[in-house]
Write a structure and sequence with these properties.
With 223 residues, the protein is an all-alpha fold. Helices cover 75% and strands 0% of the residues. The chain has ten helices and no strands. Helix 2 packs across helix 3, helix 4 packs antiparallel against helix 5 and helix 4 packs antiparallel against helix 8. The longest helix is centred in the first third of the chain and has 38 residues. The radius of gyration is 25 Å and the shape is elongated. It starts with a helix and ends with a helix. It comes from Streptomyces fimbriatus.
């Protein structure tokens, strides 16, 4: 076989490999984008809008978030921890009646602390924490973003963060969805706690023991 023929064959093979790679990438691209859109939901649309409609740039950003935070495993809350967080959120809602701006700022602090307790990046690194939350709770991060925006504006001196009472109420309601997601026990945790309760019923030391509810604690205090 002549040298010229060998070179021609090598060139042909190289072209076939490049063409196959291009076809593969084109086939994978839309599917990859569809997967990200399904995973991130409204957060996907926000990313596209932030990149002035450039879907590819938005998908690169979202893929980087998944790469950075996709392996994060949320730490389960102990029942007493969960009860404390729920009591604090109830206090935030009660405070909203008389001081909506203060209540929204407290909700922002509470969500940052709760997310940190669950194993997400520390609340002192808000952008990183929000990015991680968006990977695992994409459909519920906008409320946190809204209350944080109000809290930051208030910290800079704007009265009630420049938001009206109704806007703050809507932000708090939306943020509650993320709070519920974070505070709710996972199926694995519920199974573990049920197993522990069964052991307690079988064990003499565990009989009759239960964690008092927030309501019962208040009753005891007032009686």
């Amino acid at each position: 076989m002549s040298t010229g023929l060998i070179i021609a064959l090598i060139v042909i093979v190289a072209l076939v490999v490049v063409a196959a790679a291009v076809v593969t990438l084109r086939a994978r691209g839309p599917r990859h984008g569809t997967n990200l859109k399904r995973r991130f939901g409204p957060e996907y649309d926000r990313a596209v809008a932030r990149h002035d409609g450039d879907a590819k740039a938005a998908e690169r950003e979202l893929a980087e978030r998944v790469e950075r935070h996709g392996d994060l495993r949320e730490r389960p809350l102990e029942p007493a921890e969960r009860e404390r967080y729920e009591a604090r959120w109830a206090a935030v809602q009660e405070r909203f009646v008389d001081a909506p701006g203060d209540a929204v700022a407290e909700a922002d602090r509470l969500l940052a602390e709760l997310a940190g307790a669950k194993g997400f990046p520390d609340g002192g690194h808000y952008e990183d924490q929000l990015a991680a939350l968006s990977v695992h709770h994409a459909h519920h991060v906008e409320g946190y973003r809204r209350v944080h925006r109000v809290a930051q504006a208030r910290a800079r001196g704007a009265h009630d963060g420049g938001a009206g009472t109704e806007e703050m109420r809507e932000a708090l309601v939306e943020a509650r969805a993320l709070f519920d997601e974070l505070v709710r026990p996972s199926a694995h945790d519920r199974g573990r706690h049920r197993a522990g309760a069964d052991d307690g019923r079988r064990s003499p030391a565990g009989r009759g023991h239960h964690t008092p509810s927030v309501f019962h604690r208040h009753q005891t205090k007032e009686s």
